[in-house]
Here is the input.
Amino acid sequence: MKIMISAAEAIEKGVWNEILRLFGRDKNEEIWPKEEFILTEEQALQLKLIKK
Here is the structure.
């Protein structure tokens, strides 16, 4: 299963820094609020975005 989350949603849910780390992104680069990131089920579980 793949889970999509936008940058705005990640910020709202408090997982933005973890998303940056997972995707190797720099906190200073420009990112659009609607930019989407695709997480594996395992990543989403680790970030507590879903429950098993």
Observations:
- The beta strands are 2-6, 36-40.
